[in-house]
Design brief:
285 residues; alpha/beta; Spore Coat Polysaccharide Biosynthesis Protein SpsA, Chain A; two-stranded antiparallel ribbon; 24% strand; globular; binds 1-O-phosphono-alpha-D-glucopyranose
Length: 285
């Protein structure tokens, strides 16, 4: 079954990036010349997604504005001969059919994903976490969708993380199926050293089906007093198959300062207008 819908949870406070996020949604912090959420939507679209639901919260209206038309600004640009720039702005709003929902209270990622029930209906859907900016060819979400279309079962995107870091993510108990695909038997969110099942952690990409909703709705709070998507998946893999794909690509955790700076430098070096200049500039430091 072809997957046409994606959900992007973007309701968090962004406390790891304060004070920058005091008055700007973290998803709107720029990576070179566009906000980080632009890259996430672009990945979804280039993976074949047509409709996107972005889950926001109070104070994040700038995210909605970014995917809307800006007729006054476009008109002004056109009048001064900048037709191409005006068209580029319009193209952002036309990338996909983007809609929004406000999560009234933040009770964790599982609670956020549960808000997408009406939007996704009976259709399978991709979930892309806003903090995890990916470089991949094919795009990481496309790689997951290929596995979903082959197996018909939910898929999570995983990578091996160092033992010293795994407590920041989740840990998966898996058995290999093929070179990059594994079947998942158990998941633990933010594991203690004793709870670590393997160094495989989910890094920001999922393909889910409607089967997740009743599980999420029945879940009690987990790590941090929040409804954890990982706990929902732990229940799901007891009921039916769940696969993990060790995707090919590079991930930047733009939700913390180091990952944000890494992404900034790597993406600036690749930028068609400033990349070569930036490489020379770095050499002078
Ligand atoms: C979330 C998930 C976690 C995952 C991580 C990275 O954690 O709950 O399972 O490994 O994203 O994608 P958070 O970064 O919100 O603490």
């Amino acid at each position: 079954m072809r997957v046409k819908k994606a959900v992007i949870p973007a309701a968090g406070f962004g406390t790891r990036m304060l004070p920058a996020t005091k008055s700007i949604p973290k998803e709107m912090l720029p990576l070179v010349d566009r906000p980080s959420i632009h890259y996430i939507v672009e990945e979804a679209v280039s993976s074949g997604i047509e409709e996107i639901l972005i889950i926001i919260s109070r104070g994040k209206e700038a995210v909605c504005d970014y995917f809307d038309y800006t007729p006054e600004l476009e008109e002004k640009l056109k009048k001064s001969g900048r037709e191409e720039d005006a068209a580029a702005l319009r193209a952002i709003a036309d990338m996909a059919k983007v809609t929004f929902i406000r999560q009234k209270e933040q009770h964790g990622l599982g609670h956020a994903v549960a808000q997408a029930k009406t939007f996704t209906g009976d259709e399978p859907f991709a979930v892309l976490l806003g903090d995890d900016v990916m470089e991949g060819n094919p795009p990481v979400t496309r790689q997951l969708l290929d596995v979903f279309e082959e197996t018909g079962a939910p898929v999570v995107g995983v990578a091996e993380v160092p033992t010293s870091e795994i407590h920041r993510y989740c840990s998966l108990g898996v058995t290999p199926v093929s070179e990059r695909v594994m079947e998942v038997h158990q998941l633990v969110e933010k594991p203690t050293p004793e709870q670590v099942l393997s160094n495989y952690a989910i890094l920001g990409r999922y393909v889910l089906t409607r089967d997740i909703y009743p599980i999420l709705e029945g879940l009690s709070t987990g790590f941090g007093g929040e409804i954890q998507l990982t706990d929902g998946l732990n229940e799901l893999c007891r009921q039916s198959k769940l696969f993990a794909l060790a995707y090919q690509g590079t991930r930047y955790d733009t939700g913390n300062l180091r990952g944000y700076l890494e992404a900034q430098v790597k993406l600036a070096l690749q930028h068609p207008d400033v990349g070569a200049w930036f490489a020379e500039f770095l050499k002078t430091l």
